[in-house]
């Protein structure tokens, strides 16, 4: 019953958009359906607009992975406007945030505007309900044209989004501002579990800070390198692949599945760099020895597999775990998931390492 | 009705504790009521155990400030145990987290253990309901004695807390590990609004990193320097006062109230240092000119007041806003509240500045 009401509500929003040719004027704002603008961050182009991957084409992948790929993690709307105010109306599923997340990250929106050649924070849309919300992200801006990126919810399914600008302003699609395509396959850490807002998930930060298009294929708790998932990943047309998928696989699974994942990608993409990343230390293992031992085993097995593979597979690189979270043990929200401080430290190591590899390959 | 059920539930937990002499054995764990251990962080000693201040003694302060002082922000339980596992059962009010907070920060617990002379993260208790919860913060530790600090919820009222250790382990009160008393009066930023867990609010980090006892008098949205609040603060027996209360006061209120706050404290404490801190930049004002202008006016008026006061009041210091959040605009969760990255940057400036002042005063 609740589900039915939810979908009726979503339909009402969509019908409202359709009957007004995807735009309307209410409260001096003019709303445009995000489907008329440019969506970036989708590893495959088809399927429901706000889903990362249309898994109908991959029936064999685990059901949980299919569900997680409906989350809009890493998706962002690229547009330009001359409005001095930007608002949004959006609907998500009725799910509620986990206890290690803010609602803004889980089901909110995050706006960046380019200034002096750099993407800069402009405002968030704070959800007040778990389904449909309306919020002004920024107001009182200077006149003139603005290049914008609006990041979608990290951990929820986005059902609809309309972007509001002033009645006398215009808004239009802008091309993807980032070059090339680099997939990051990984756990909740890639997915963005404890980033405090959508634009602070680490693939999104990497894109803004390097100019490359990093795509978020984080599948919370389920980056287990299954053969069916490896096949799906190999279907994606990428210039590089980053594999940050150690945290969710048992040490035995790491040994069983790493070679297949790497070889499946390499078979379809003979020349692209593949960058393997060890798991960050689990701060929950700072005193809990069993947690610490498990991560050590995962990382040791992963390194062993990558070392072996490097004898046959060219252009395969490894970024090791040391130093990824700093040394004060303050970089996580819950002992597992980096907070924004932890992500910042990860990037201080991962960003230059990835840039160096891309440069080596002329990307 | 819901309120009645909530209090019945809390009473049930308390009665359970009382009838078993504040300890009991369930599921191989032995629970001790936190009221038998040492609570640190209370600016005044009396009143309900888990309230920061017993405002019954200050009837004139605003009702909202009274309510906010029931939140357990900055309170922590100091104890020692030889258990290899530490758990908690705790109840809070039925309130729910704001959209810029994690539930762990809002109503969860955060455990630190001293190792090699430093306080290190050990584990959190993740709430799964909004009232009473039970959680194992850490397990599988090495044998031996451990000095512990368990931080209480930042933004909720703590109604009860029992700490669980293994049945054959012991637990006992430990003295406050921090020296002197330094009050930080401030806004939601001091209160810890967007820290990802209780131990990452900035007063708590300052205590662990310096060894001084910083007390959290953050009153979210309501640090408005009212004369009645100034009187209450002056009643607190402190070795230093930090005033980080600019963000909640209008520019006019800053001008009207700063001098009274400083002089009221100075009258009761002739020789202690008073450290005034300008407001961090509001990242929401990165593009919104009206937000930026308001903060500029607040800070200009505050500096003017402090400059004037310094002509008559000795030992009054000012920490300016420049550089407090870095320069990439990524240090907040919502444009107002620092995320853990923003807090880290604040501390890189505030920590050495405060330490230098304390040293000058021989504290």
Please characterize this protein's 3D structure.
2 copies of one chain form a homodimer. Chain A is of the alpha+beta class and 363 residues long. In chain A, helix 8 (289-310) links the parallel strand 15 and strand 16 (316-319). The radius of gyration of chain A is 20 Å and the shape is globular. Chain A has helices at residues 2-19, 63-68, 103-107, 188-191, 202-210, 227-234, 251-268, 289-310, 340-360; strands at residues 23-26, 29-33, 38-40, 76-81, 86-92, 109-115, 118-125, 132-138, 146-151, 158-166, 171-173, 179-186, 212-218, 240-244, 274-277, 316-319. In chain A, helix 5 (202-210) packs across helix 9 and helix 6 runs parallel beside helix 7. Chain A folds into 2 domains: 24-173, Sandwich (Jelly Rolls), CATH 2.60.120.260; 179-360, Rossmann fold, CATH 3.40.50. Helices cover 31% and strands 26% of the residues of chain A. In chain A, strands 3, 4, 6, 7, 9 and 11 form a 6-stranded antiparallel beta sheet that branches. A 5-stranded antiparallel beta sheet of chain A has the order 1-2-10-5-8, covered by helices on one side. In chain A, strands 13-12-14-15-16 form a 5-stranded parallel beta sheet, with helices on both faces. Chain A is built from 9 helices and 16 strands. The termini of chain A are far apart. Residues 7-26 of chain A have low confidence and may be disordered.
